[in-house]
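Worked example 2:
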Amino acid sequence: MSQNTPQLIALQEQHLELVRAWRNHDDIRPLMLSQHTIDADEHRAWFDKLATQPQRKAYVYTDSSGPAGFVQFDGLMPQSTATWGFYKAPNAPKGTGYTMLTLALQALFNEYKVHKVAAQVLGSNIASLGLHSKLGFRQEGTLRAHVLLGGAWHDVVCFGLLDTEYATWK
């Protein structure tokens, strides 16, 4: 593939500091289910553990401007329910998340052959709620006052997309 073609590249050591900086950015961290600042040692331990877990994969999304986002999958087995987590680079342009996640869904359903992709989104993360709907996900429920963040309880919205729904959506 051309460097200008949007693609997912397996997370490599050279990406670690960039991805950690994105995750810890003030525009990203408050939208995560875990909002603490991740230090270099914690991030390294997470990366090292990825290599021992074949059902988990992490990718950097790149486009014509270079690295622009991050996505990870868990539960990767044929006919399984996989989960994902993601964020775009703080300064990435509008539309980056949609393009990145369209590629991620292609990988999940076509390469990994999962049955379902499940996601949990903070109820206050309006952009991610809308993005999941735009991608064809169905809201499956709300876990009311489910996580305590910054001294306040927050709802978590559950989404799912089945392989049969993806086949008709794409």
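The helical segments are 16-24, 40-50, 96-111, 126-134, 163-169. The beta strands are 7-10, 56-63, 66-74, 81-88, 116-122, 138-149, 152-162.
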